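Its record is retained below.
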Amino acid sequence: MNPRLRDGLLGAAVAVLVMVIAVWVVVWSISDPARGGAAAPSTPAPSPSAGGRDEPPSDLGPAEMWLDDLVLDAGTVVLPDSTLRDVAVTAQGVRSGPDGLVASEMAVDATVPFDVVAAEIGQDTTVRSGGSSEAVVERTVEIGGRSFDVVATGEVDVVAGRIVVEPTSIDLGGPSFLAGILGTVVRRLVTIEHEVEGLPEGLVLQDAVVQDDGFRAHLSGEDVRLVSPASSAR
């Protein structure tokens, strides 16, 4: 499988969020409450104006931590084989404990640039917006020892957790009957199937739309495991 797929859409955004939370977990676990002054309640009641959607757990242990209404924004997240733009992460009810670091609810919005998707299809491939809900794939393909400049257009969809653009029209730059004859062969060479892998358990790609600069993807889920017990114990 193409290694770019393993970097996934959400892997980058979640990795940044995990780094921030992990530092907080370490500081919390190795420190004690400050002495002196009035003792703070072990589980303070949430402020009515806080806006949180979850109530703090009543069984929160002394070595555990609970966070609500977490927000993370990043203009650019760069990985060895992928780049994400305008990443926005929100999470509610994030708890550290024996199950690791788990968010009761989490949502992520991020833009996958066109060039990242184009690189998965093949060299000398261009992906761009086709207006409305469509994307256009342009590339040169070789069939029977001949090269063809292909322009394929299709609607953006989400299928089984993947961003999919299956061509509804294919132009080979010649007579229309040529596209009919070679369409089956060419179609698979210009179909986008951007699979999002490496995501935390419980996080699912829900929707994707085309923008001028890439595919805007929305992911969400419940009981999303950000850090496993082994990782959080380090």
Summary: Helices lie at 3-7, 9-30, 114-121, 176-187, 229-232.
